[in-house]
Amino acid sequence: MAEGSDPIPAQDLNGTPITIGSYVLYLNTGTAGQVTELKQEEGTIWALVDTTGLYYNIQVLVVTDANAVKVRKERETGEIDKDDLVRQQTPATVADIGQVTGGG
By CB neighbour count within 10 A (0-12 exposed, 13-18 middle, 19+ buried), where does 12 fall? Predict the structure, then answer.
């Protein structure tokens, strides 16, 4: 579709509008990113996601918020904020391994 023409009417799996700049989640792999381009080919609408550089069929995307994308990017790059990590810990996620011993 040529620049300057009408925008492509795109909706995610739940019917939420997808536009350039939307943050989306690809359900099959959990990939998250921001939509940088929309295109339509043979009746199918595709969204280009910045984190992978790949086009995804909008029917398998779900619009999410920027925070979800930020957390996924941090996990993938290993650059997690220590304060965020501490806030995420709950008694269920903290395990006392003080009494664990190996065999032998």
Answer: buried
Q: Which residues pair with 44 in a beta bridge?
A: 41
State the Cα–Cα distance between residues 62 and 2, nearest whole angstrom. 26
Q: What tokens does 89 get? A: 């810990």
CA–CA–CA angle 51, 32, 17 (5° rounding): 110
pTM: 0.62
Q: Which CATH architecture has domain 10-88?
A: Roll (2.30)
For the segment 65-74, what is each residue's pLDDT rounded down to a tens digit? 887 666 656 6
pLDDT beneath 50, residues of the chain: 1-4
* Domain limits, the chain: 10-88
Q: Is 14 helix (H, G, I), strand (E, B) or coil?
A: coil
User: Which amino acid belongs to residue 81?
Assistant: D
